[in-house]
């Protein structure tokens, strides 16, 4: 017999259920499993360092290199990776004076196409991720960014300036799934 079920109160079982649901929520995934899955993936990709950051070839986003990520986490992994690369590109493109501090804090990678040095647009990373799942992740991520830029002081990058830069950037909001980002940014 399951000892946990026998020896736990209804409140404990309810707490366990809530914790499991949180584990499946974007924030639970991002602050839990994503960090270790991301680290393992970076090791498998043989990422290379340049002065301005870590570069990973786009072709490393494949089944072999992601074999350690459980199937149920793959969509969230792709969403998290796309969003982290998106904010890195936003900071690099719009807040160059603050980028060194941001890059040192986050160590987010750059996805490149071959060895060209051209950065891949983050929307190519999400592929065929379910739209509802993507929306839920973006909703969490934008709220998390708002908190980050409210609490972390940069010279130019405030939440309002980052939000405005993202809304004004056609590469971010101009095509699917950018309208999701735009809609959520407009409401935050």
Structural summary, described in words:
By secondary structure, the chain is mainly alpha-helical. The protein has one domain. The protein has 11 helices and 3 strands. The chain has a 3-stranded mixed β-sheet with strand order 1-2-3. β1 (48-50) and β2 (53-57) form a beta hairpin. α5 (74-94) packs across α8 and α8 packs across α11.
Secondary-structure blueprint:
Blueprint: H1 3-7, H2 10-24, H3 26-31, H4 33-45, E1 48-50, E2 53-57, H5 74-94, H6 99-106, E3 109-112, H7 123-126, H8 131-151, H9 159-168, H10 170-173, H11 178-186
Helix pairs in contact: 5-8, 8-11
Q: How much helical structure, as a percent, in the residues?
A: 55-70%
Main sheet makeup:
3 strands, mixed
Order of helices and strands: HHHHEEHHEHHHHH
Strand ordering within the main sheet: 1-2-3
The tally of domains stands at 1
How many H/I helices?
11
